[in-house]
Amino acid sequence: MNKLSYSFFVLAALVVYSCAEQYTESYNIQGSSSVSVLDGSKLYLKVMMGDDIKNIDSCEVVHGSFGFTGKLDTTRLAMLSVAESGIPIVIEKGDILVNIDKTGHKVSGSPMNDMLYEYLDKLIQLQNQRGELGHKQIQMLLEGVDEQTIVSKLSVEEGVLLAQIDSLETCFILANLDNVLGPCAFQILTSGFPYPVLTPQIEEIMGKASDKFKNDRYVREYYGKAKEILSRMKGEIDDSSAVGAAAEAK
Question: Whole-model pTM?
Answer without folding.
Answer: 0.80
